[in-house]
Amino acid sequence: MDSSEFLEFLAGRSSVREYDASELHERDLVFLLDCASTAPSAGNLEAWDVVLVRDPELREALSGAAFGQSHVLSAPALFVLCANYVRSMSRYGERGILYAVQDATIAGTYLLLAAHALRLVSCWVGAFDEEEVRNIIGLPNHVRPVAIICIGKGAQPAELTGRMPVSEHLHYEEW
Ligand SMILES: Cc1cc2nc3c(=O)[nH]c(=O)nc-3n(C[C@H](O)[C@H](O)[C@H](O)COP(=O)(O)O)c2cc1C
User: Which has fewest Cβ within 10 Å: 9, 63, 66, 166?
Assistant: First the structure.
């Protein structure tokens, strides 16, 4: 893939919130996780973990925790990306809290792009009640849920979203 194909690949992804009912193949799940595990992390500590949720009752409960977002129920696979504070804080102390969140976020981003490479569709879900999610999937105290990533096969074509001009993000030398 050359650089223009890479940009085309990235620009061709967009969030999809309707999925058909089919399950993901086991080999696709393995590919997604293999891709996520190539993500960079602070000190290569990989201070992220993921809970794969496919059980319909748990998906329904997580959909409730995500304030009723229906795609959290209809997606066949949910990847709850978590920051593992202990893994990062054991080396970096308080700074490790931020590193663990960054590690989990980058791993989640890789997962999203890996799904796109498989021509699956996805949606990053950040709006949820953390305590509810924690209880539903039994997270220990040192682990924080960062995102629920919904992945499945699209039930409708993806609609591409626009972006603000890059110049609005960019500051030269100083803010
Ligand atoms: C931190 C974060 C939180 C998000 N939370 C939600 C969410 O709770 N529900 C949802 O449907 N989409 C959510 N999204 C998806 C965004 O709405 C979407 O990425 C954005 O509108 C850009 O569209 P695109 O993904 O199609 O490019 C979230 C995305 C990010 C990065």
Answer: 166
